[in-house]
Write a structure and sequence with these properties.
The protein is of the alpha+beta class. Among the domains are: about 40-55 and about 280-350, Beta Barrel (conserved putative lor/sdh protein from methanococcus maripaludis s2 fold); about 100-160, Helix hairpin bin (Helix Hairpins), CATH 1.10.287. It is built from 4 helices and 19 strands. Helix 2 packs antiparallel against helix 3 (about 135-160). The longest helix is centred in the first third of the chain and has 35 residues, at about 5-40. One of its GO terms (cellular component) is efflux pump complex. One of its GO terms (molecular function) is efflux transmembrane transporter activity. Belongs to the membrane fusion protein (MFP) (TC 8.A.1) family.
Amino acid sequence: MRKLIPLLLLLLIAGAMVFVLFHNKAEVDRKANNAQAATVTPVSVMTARKQTVDSSYTRTSTIVADNEVSVVAQASGKVVAVYADVGSRLNAGAPLFKIDDAVLRSKLASARTAYDVARKEWERAVRLHQEQVISDSDLESCEETFQSSKANYNAAQQDYNDATITAPVRGVVTERAVALGATVSSGTVVATLIDDSAYKITVNVGEQEAFKLKTGDAVKIETDVYPGVALSGRIRSISGKSDAVHTFPVEVQIVNDKTHPLKSGIFGKVTFHLGTLRDALVIPREALVGSVKEPRIYVAEHGVAKLRDIVVGAEVDAKLVVTAGLSENEPVIVSGQENLRDNAAIKVIHMK
């Protein structure tokens, strides 16, 4: 009996502690609920309406020259002359560098002499063959010698011409990799040129948008360099294969505008026109809670905010086209939702 008394005391103490804890928790919850009930968040709402909107799709990427060429030396030797620098504008065939051609010039002269001799011998052999002085085999031998010397002469001429490195296309020099006195080898990249008459920009579009576009479609391009100026371009190609995240590369060609000239490497924002949507349920972008990938909004219902999952079909300027999760004429909270939670008390102070 004496052993049971301490045990009963312990049980009574434990029970009392549990009772106190639950009582305190209930009191805290009651006060919190009262405080929450007393908190009313002022909000602005707008009525969801159906509209006719022009659907567009915007993506940003880097504008680059439509044609960029690396100029490669075809001959080896010391650079003895530099005719252009970074920023120089050249026509196709204009000289860029000159490599020491003394040896090549000597080889060309020797090949020219051998060619002239072989040509004269072959012309003489043709006359003698016509007069039946020499045989067919003698004529063929002279012709082989002539053709061989001709090939050697053409090769020597090409090697000599290669000593002058020229611009392969019309354009602007954007990089000069060698200087006067440098020694280059055949295959060395000595300069880079871009054709600045046209530029291009490649952006990745979603699979839904890719099937609404076609080559030749006109697009709008904007840059931070020219605020408020819309440049024009056209879709040149749409990839037939998506990448790992199911987007399709679309290449847009931009004709360089002399009034607003472009440079390779600047950012551009491309806007594609996807058509006109009629009877589209539209809400402002500011009503969205979270991201477009997981869109949610708050709808005002009888003095409380109801968190709602929606499906966004398109984004048009600062508007979202809702395809599911919202009905016409429902009041959407567009301001004051930053501190809301589901079922929070609200007071509508402005109706748009």
